[in-house]
Structures are given as structure tokens and as C-alpha cells.
Amino acid sequence: MPVPLLQASGLSCERDDRLLFVDLELAVAPGDLLQIEGPNGSGKTTLLRMLAGLHTGFEGEIRWCGEPLARQREHFLRNLLYIGHRPGIKPLLTPLENLRAQLSGKPGVGDEQLESALDAVALFPFIHVPCHHLSAGQQRRVALAALYLSDEPLWILDEAFTAIDKDGVASLERLLHKRMSAGGAVILTTHHPLHVDGARSLSLARFAPAAEDLF
Amino acid sequence: MLKLPRLTPRQESQPVLPALLGVLRRDLLANFRRRQELFNPLIFFVMVVALFPLGVSPEVEFLRQSGAGILWVAALLSTLLSLDHLFRHDFDEGVLEQMLLQPQPLYLMVLVKVFSHWLVTGLPLVLMTPVLGVMLHLDGNSIGYLCLTLLVGTPVLSFIGAIGAALTLGLRSAGILLSLLIIPLYIPVLIFGTGTVTAVAAGLPVGSYIALLGALLVVAITCAPFATAAALRISVSNS
Amino acid sequence: MWQFFHKLGSPKWFYGIASRFMPWLLGSSLLLMVAGMVWGLAFAPPDYLQGNSYRIIFIHVPTAFLAQSAYVMMAVAGIVTLVWRMKLADVFVKAVAPVGAVLTFLALFTGAVWGKPTWGTWWIWDARLTSMLILLFLYCGVIALGNAIADEKSSARAVAVLVLVGVVNIPIIKYSVEWWNTLHQPATFKLTEKPSMPPEMWVPLLVMVLALYLFFGWIACLRMQNEILYRERRSSWVKAIMGTGNARASAKVTD
């Protein structure tokens, strides 16, 4: 197995006086797709936010390319694409404006590429329509369009398929598959059954605290 | 379909300026799309000023004496009111999370965000001040200095206020809490702002007072975004 | 080094240490307080200008002094919270903030009481009183923010940031208020710049300051112990102390 890109060990998380999981271990290497499973409220979103460095109140260690994440933060962020529960889309702006603003820090991404990415998520007819006129699924697709322009080796996708129709899911699955064969690593949560070859899954139930730890 | 590039962890750093311009453009654009809302703090400003002649006294002498203080207090309250929006929309939409995950320094991002906030809320107050100054019977010289102090002072209000806005992000009853945290910190700005105009009216030299306000602005610009950035990380972590 | 810090930050360890020190703190502070009071109120000579009304300084000065230094102590604890994430530092901030607010209020109140015979009015917008009023506002902000954030760790860090911002501002506020005061009212009452106090006055004052510091230490320990018990209520050692729950239950000792 190649050196893991992202590796977590001994992660425990407590929210609102409730232990979500204890001693969680995970690792993703280039070419891996890891699906985090668990019922609502089991801490999937919190785990992804921890891995992305957004949520800091936890115990345990996260390593990026073998080094502690805190010391490699800038390097980590340059190589991460995170799409959260809330898609990061401003409803007053059009899909094109949203995507342009989000990717403005990346060199070499022009309007042409942005338009083709929005085309890839079937939003081309809507690129000049303010997002609050679009449906929830279409807004989600605006965020997902960033995936088609991403050269970041690590993707963390929270509820990647929520509100996406069947065709959209299929093309995303193709993208994920391509991504894996290109050596990208993906960590995601979804309640849809995932049809991607080589995907692994990790159930949070395995790391649920023993009953007596709760109180 | 796009071709995926070869994936190896990248080492080179990414350009800062385009990212900052992107933030500025997005914020200004979003504000432009809801421009009717931008008038609200301005109308509030005018209304608060109008309360004083009505509530205290319309006498020319009183208004001339307290005009600068009234305008400063009204500008302060108006800024406080508009601060709630500074990060709230971004926070609710998940845009803030994305901003925290940009490799560019958060300090600079915050600086740009607060600056764009000032452009759409603080600057209009300064531009409105001459009209209200005339209504409060201030003389031309005082109005000029009042505008100058507000021009230097309102960005300080925005930068300090951003700390409070970031700390109270995502909390219930954030508005009143924000005022509670921030008003004590506004007092020096208020004192130097109105004090300068009082000194002008008394015929004292005011260069040093304006320099003090300028010093406050420099300190606010250099220090406040650090505290704001730290507070944003805490609030996002808690959400 | 790290081990030592870790131990210092351990709530359980602190709880034990505090229990040992507290009786001494309380005893010595009460002793000094009684001594200082009797000395100051009964034996110190009356002021040549204000007569006996000045004697309120034996309460006013120590409270005002401590109210300000408590905020600085909170700021130091805030740095510790942010840099080393030490739980105990936050416990200190949360425990001390209301005490500081009460002390500030007492300083303001005794200042007002003192003002009546001296200035002929309860309140005067004097630079010191105004600064103390703003300090009270700052304390209120810290307490309000601490209460508003439910999550313990977020609350700790947010309050630490606020306290640090506040402590940076305190000198600026003080300076600006003094400047404002000279601008608006030429100094008519300057009681503070009298020729130096005779030792019969300042020695009991010093005793009172010391007594109040010790008392502050005691009450800080007491409140910190309470806070620790609440926070660690699920751990076995707290259950053992309190005699609640079944002490065997918990495998998770958050230490």
C-alpha cells in the first residue's frame, strides 16, 4: 500500500455532552475511495469536518502525507477540495459567478473552463440565472462543478449526492471512478448506494462508544 | 469531459491577489444584487439623528453644540446594526467554510471582506453626513472635520465590530450580544472622533487628534483581522 | 516540561491542591481584613480635608484595584487557553469573570457613596469612574458570551479571544477617557494628587488590599472547584467525591 495521503488515528469526538465515536482509525491513499457510513446523527458530517480541519474540538491525531496536519496546514489546504453540507453557493449570484469566485485563487482557470465544468453538470442553460431561482439539486450541482476543474489530490464530499437526480448520480460515479484511476483520493458520505468499483466503506457504528461510557 | 491532471501533492504556493480580488468582487456583487437592503442602515442613521431634535431640543444652540456627538453616536449604532450581516450570510450558505479552506492567508481574506463591508455601509454614512450636519446647524468647518473623523473612524468601527460579528456567529440572539461585546470597545473611537470636532469648535489645533484617530485605524487594520480570523475558526468549528 | 503543564492543567489535581490551600487563604484573608478594617476605620487619623468620609477608600481602593487586576489575570489565562488549550485556564476565566464584575460594581458603588459627601453628588463623569464603568461593560460582555456558547471548548476559546481583545483595549480606553475628561471639564476636583498619604493611612490600606487579594484567591478557588465538579460530573472521581451514581460505572475518566 502506498503512503497514505490522509491518516487519522485515535479520533474521539464529543458533541453536546454526547460521545459520537471513540478511537476511530482511517487512512486513504492515492486511488482510494472511502465511504463513511452511519445513521443520521452518528457523526459523519462532524468526522468529515474534522478531517478537513474545520472542526477542531476532538482528541486524536490526523496526519497529512505522514506529518501532523497542524504543521502542514497550508500544504494540506492547497491539495484539498471540500464540499460541505451547505454547498457554499451564494443564492444572489449566478452559477458562473459563484464558481468564478470560488476558484479565483486557482491559477489558469478561465471562463471557458468554468463554462465547460458547468456544462458537465448539465447547468449550461442556467449559467446566467441567479442561483436562488434554481432548484436545490441544481444548486448542489454548482458546487459539484468544482470537481470537474479540480486537480487537488484529496476530495472530501459531505452528502455528495443529496438532491441529485439519477443521471447526475451516474455521471458523478463515472467522475469518481476516473478520479480514482488517476490517483485521486476521495472520502465521502452519502445515503445513496454507491456504484463505484473499488470503493471501500467505513461504518461509524464500529467506533460507537460502549454503552457504559455514555453516562 | 475534462481531462484529469496527474495527481501529486503540490508544493508551489498559490497566488494571493486573484483570490482576494475574487472575494472582493463576489461580496460587492452580492451586495449590489440586494442593494435595496443597503439603504436600511443609512435610513436608520437619518432616523436616529432626527430623534434628537424631536426628543431633546430643536434649539439651534443645543444642536450646534451636540451635533457632532449625535452624528457619531448615530453612525456607531448604524454600523453596529449592519455588522450582523458581515459574516452571517456566508456562514449560513457554507461560503465561510470554503473561505477557511483556501490556502491563502485568512487574515487577508478577512481584511478584504471587512473593507468591502465598509465600502457599502460605512462610506455611505460619511457621504450622508454633510446633509445631516447642515440640518443640525453645524458650521462648514465643523462639518468638514466631522466628515474627516468619520472617514477615518468608521473603518475602525467596522474592523473592531468584525471581531464581535465573528465571535457571535451562529448564536441565538447574536444581535444584542454583539452590541454588548463591541460597544465598550468603540468608546475610544467615539471619544477621539467627537473630541476632534469639539476641539475645532473651540479653536484648538486638531492635527494631533486626527493623527490619534489615524493611529487607531492602523492598529485596527493590523490587529483586528487576526482576532477576527481566530474567532471565525472558533465559530465555524462550533457549527 | 510538557508533563508538568499537563499535570497543572489537570482539573482533578487542581481540585485536590485547592482543597488544601483554601482554609489558609480564607483564614489569613479574614484575619487581615478584620485587622485592616479596625485599623483603618478606628485608628487611622481623619483626613484634613474630608474628615472621616475618606475612610471608604479602605474598601473602594482595594476593590477597584482588584477589579482591574482580575481582568488582566483573565487575559493571561486567555493566552494559556489559546496557546496550550489548558482546560483549567478556562475554568479560571469562567469562575473569575462574575467575581470581577461584582468587584467592579462594588468599586463603582463605593465611589458613588464617597462622591456624595465629597462632590455633593452621587455620580460624576470623572475619568476614573467612567473607566470603571466601561470595565464593568467589558466584564458583562465576557460573561454574556461565555453563557451564550453551549459548547465548552468553543466557549473557552471565544471568551479567551474576547478577553484578549479587551485587555489590549483597556489602556486605549483609559487614555481616551482621561483625554475626554480634560477636554470637557477642566480639573476642579483632583483629590488624588494630594501630597502623599501618611503611613498611618496607607499601611492599613495596604493591609486591606492584601486581605482582598487573599479573599479573591479563596473565592476563585471555590468557584473553580464548583466549575470543575460540574464539568467533570461524569468522571469516576467526581462521582466518588459526591457519592452519586455508581462509582464503578465510568471507564472514561476525562483527565
> How big is the Rg of chain B?
20 Å
Structural class, judged by helices and strands of chain C? Answer: mainly alpha
Span of the ends, CA to CA of chain B: 36 Å
Strand content of chain B: under 5%
What is the total tally of β strands of chain B? 0
Oligomer: heterotrimer
Count of DSSP E strands of chain C? 0
Strand content of chain C: under 5%
Give the proportion of residues in helices of chain B: over 70%
Number of DSSP helices of chain C?
A: 8
Mass-distribution shape of chain B = elongated
Mean pLDDT of chain C: 84
Estimated structural class of chain B: mainly alpha
Name the biggest interface: A-B, 51 and 42 residues
Largest sheet of chain C: none
Low-confidence stretches of chain B: 1-6
Our measurement of the CA-to-CA distance between the termini of chain C, rounded to an integer number of angstroms, reads 18 Å
Low-confidence stretches of chain C: 186-190, 246-255
Shape of chain C: globular
Structure report:
The complex is a heterotrimer of chains A (215), B (239) and C (255). Chain A has 215 residues and is α/β, with parallel strands linked by helices. Chain A is built from seven helices and nine strands; from the N terminus they run βββαββαβαααβαββα. Chain A has helices spanning 44-52, 73-78, 95-102, 111-120, 136-148, 166-181, 211-214; strands at residues 6-15, 18-28, 33-37, 58-64, 67-68, 80-83, 154-157, 185-189, 199-203. Chain A has a five-stranded parallel beta sheet with strand order 6-7-8-3-9, sandwiched between helices. Chain A has a four-stranded antiparallel beta sheet with strand order 2-1-4-5, with helices on one face. Chain B is built from eight helices and no strands. Chain B is elongated and about 70 Å long. The relative contact order of chain B is 0.13. Residues 1-6 of chain B have low confidence and may be disordered. By secondary structure, chain C is an all-alpha fold. Chain C is globular and about 60 Å long. Chains A and B meet through helix 2, helix 3 and helix 4 of A and helix 1, helix 3, helix 4 and helix 8 of B.
